[in-house]
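Note to self: keep these together.
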Amino acid sequence: MSVTAVLLVLGAAVAHAAWNVIAHGASRAGLPFLWCGSVVSTVLWLPIVPLTGGFGTDDIPGFLLGITVSAVMHVGYMMVLQRGYALGNLSAVYAVARGTGPLLTVIVAITFLGERPSPLALIGVAAIIAGVVAIGFVDRPPAGERRRGIDPAILFGMLTGVAIAAYTVWDASSLRLWNISPVAFMVGCTLLEVPIFTALLGRRLRAVVPLAKLEWRRLLVFGILSPLSYILVLAAITIAPVALVAPMREVSVVLVSLFGAFVLHEGRPAARLAASGIVVAGIVFLAV
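Structure:
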């Protein structure tokens, strides 16, 4: 990967980790938070579109198709992820999702997009995925405290990973096929998410006003950093293989995990550091 692509992805990881750390409490409010987040993101980033090349393309039907499918996929991803958090262990759901998603993305990119990462890059991909999953399982409950049958964390984590792979591959294909500006694409998606979340909320839409008044600071952070993190990823996949970008962006898991270990004093810091080291090694393999 080029230095530019690496810096874009690492910047995306920092932004993603930052808004998750700051806004994770409010995000548990569910659909009302997601509705507010989509509105705030659209309002804040819409004025930036003309300053970043507009749509980036004259193919308006292609642009509309790209953002419509992506918006539906992102809403589906958020719904499955929230369901997983409600039924399973937080860290395990997150880790399985962030590990499964890049793995499936790599497979699809090689099989259908014709990308051919080098053997060294594939080693880096494998290391990142393994390290991310290991980080998540650091906080799993002891065997005697886990539920019998299929672990909801594993099930919904994998479903979330499928959603991540789906929207990542679709978004990469859309930007390349129709030459769409990453900022316009992201803003189009957040704009279309608003009516979808409105329909899903129904009568619960009235809950967004008190939530917005209570959590406006966190929503502001979300509205700035959440789109920024994905805009940087979209910019990266226009100049680098999606099979390499998708795994590297999961360095955000390492940052959140280290924050939990050294700031929140969560348990087993040595295990977290070891797993994080595996991810860092994978990034080095991708960057060379």
